[in-house]
Amino acid sequence: MSETHAPVRVCAAAELVDGGAGQRLNATYAGGDAVVFFVRYAGEAYGYLNRCAHVPMELDWVEGQFFESSGLYLMCATHGAIYQPETGKCVGGPCRGGRLRPVRVEERDTPEGRAVFWLPDDDLRPKSP
Ligand code: FES
């Protein structure tokens, strides 16, 4: 993946709670509008294109809510596909074996404290203002 795009600050590291609400950011994917989201699972931050592998719809049932009730899987609200948070692999539902499109995520210390950053690539980038 290219390193030519500037890292985008997503949120303070503490705002991304294990198995809790995700953070959404507007994006451009292959020239069209899209959303990326970031969650924390087992201590690590992960990010994906917010687009189900079944039908290209956003996953969250309420904006920013991606985990199902156990907090172990990401779930698509439309037909209930479940995904491993750490791999994006669909492990149940109509697109079993499919995958969410990952984005690169890094946590860094900044003068304002530790924060989560998205490292965009050529196809999936922040939406220009
Ligand atoms: S659109 Fe996600 S499971 Fe069908």
From TrEMBL:
Rieske domain: residues covered: 8-109
Classification via Pfam families: Rieske (PF00355)
UniProt xrefs under CDD domains: Rieske
Gene Ontology MF annotations: 2 iron, 2 sulfur cluster binding; metal ion binding
Keywords: 2Fe-2S, Iron, Iron-sulfur, Metal-binding
SUPFAM superfamilies xrefs: ISP domain
Entry protein name: Rieske 2Fe-2S domain-containing protein
Annotated organism of origin: Paraburkholderia acidisoli
